[in-house]
Amino acid sequence: MKPSILSPGELKQFSRQIKALEPGIEGQEKLKYSEVIINGMDGIGIAVLRCLLAAGIGRIKIIDNRTVNEDMLPSQTLFGMNDYGKLRTLAARQNNIDGLNKNVTVLNTVMTSDNVDRLIGNAKVVIEILQSNQLALNLIDLADKKGFYLAGGFGIDWKGAYGIYCGNNKEKYKETVTSLFQHLHPYDNEQAYFSFISNIIGGAIAGKTIKALLNIGKEQSSLYEVNMLDFKIIPHLGNY
Q1: Which domain holds residue 145?
Q2: Is 2:26 a contact under the CB 8 Å cutoff?
């Protein structure tokens, strides 16, 4: 048996997770050397980040250029009132996000059609916290071109959506994303944002990300609508 590339501390920290992973230590090693991009430090982005750090993802790149908004603090659990008005990337560093993982890169920029290819680089999974339906559609095209997994979602009030795309039936996936985006009206200023919906959707996205990185079950494209008012998760585009 070849020696593990995990440190003794990592073997201890992830011991229970290693037992649950396929294929055990090799799975944890794969997570350690995986790179994931999170585009957007909204509540869901923060929830995904916490889950992926806890799971032992080795390299994470965060892209964001907005400021901490007082009205959004109930969902953005990385920030507090002292961070109000600061750039979210700056506030994240000041709150010692770098101390959680030395391989977290925080970029104060916005992902556009001009720089998206360069920003993504060799990442295996790109997580888009949906702010623009058009950007999501552009990323679907790029995922086909570069062969990465695209995961993401959004949450408002009691509702939201999440899913993953990996090169299966692009046009159907685009159609369903657009329909959900219009149906749920994300980023309507009259809606409330709560940490629980962010954590539910963020946890689901993190789970699909880990599954994709480990190639468990050959994850196919899927989209789910979340309605916590009725405690329902509705598949809109099942695995196929």
Answers
A1: 23-237
A2: no
